[in-house]
Each structure stands twice: as structure tokens, then as C-alpha cells.
């Protein structure tokens, strides 16, 4: 018998979890907001030219809607190992278990949140500055703009509104047409 493992996805885990998912539920983490507040030096940028990736940043009164993903039974240990390799590559994320609200109640979900004391933390960048970085950066997992566009598209598909991501997606399209 395996303990049920839920993972909260708010960015690429929504569309590329990298583990077998048995169930998906729309979920909300209160006290956190989705933000391009982490400089990416591995997956969507480089040390010389960092990109930006999403993280959950602590904010009173905020909430982030994403997806709770239930790991397929028997895959918990392998999933945890794979997530740690992927998400903790530079230690800018902290691994937390957070309560997330769903239609059927509150779940405890493994969640990766930003460490605001880490050197890669860059909270508070203006949206235009974020767009300029995202339009040009690329790393080991591809172009930063593709990460943004895929996340924005999947959120829209799920009916999850995120005005900042929607603005960024449109602005980055404009910028890349001009490049």
C-alpha cells in the first residue's frame, strides 16, 4: 500500500508533469501567487543569459489556481526522485507540502515554491522587463517564450485566468515578431 501523493502544478507541471498522473483536479493555493520571479540558468536560460521561470511567491491575500496531480499508485518514489532532480537543480525552489483547495475539499500537495533569499530570486520585475527577457532567453529545455506560451495556453484551456501571463504571452509574441 502506497501513501497517496498529490503534486500542485502551477507552471510546466500542468502540461509536462514528467510522471504518471492518475487524476487531475483544479486547485488553489492561498497565500501564494504565480510569478516569473526566478532566473533560470538551466532549463530556460543560461548562466550568461538567464531566462525566467514561474515560481510560487509568498504574498498575503494572494492565491494561485493551478492543478493538483495525483501520482499513479506505485509511482510515488520514482516521481519524487524525478521531481527533485528537475525542480531542485539549483536549490532556488523549496519543497513544501501545502494545502490546496479543490471542488471536493482540501488536499495536501507537494509544491515547489521560490526561496526569496536565493540568488536566482528576482521578484518584483516589471512585466515589460519580464517580456524582454523571456522573448530572448533559451536553455536546456528550450526557448523561454515556448515555456510561457505553453503555460498560458494550458491555463486558458483549463479556464484559469491569469492576466499577467496573458499580457506577457501577447507582448512576447509582439517582441519575437520584431526580432
From TrEMBL:
It is an enzyme of class 4 (lyase). The keyword Lyase applies. PANTHER family: CATION TRANSPORT PROTEIN CHAC-RELATED, GLUTATHIONE-SPECIFIC GAMMA-GLUTAMYLCYCLOTRANSFERASE 2. It comes from the Bacteria. Keywords: Lyase. Its EC number is 4.3.2.7. It comes from Rhodobacter calidifons. The keyword Protease does not apply. This is glutathione-specific gamma-glutamylcyclotransferase.
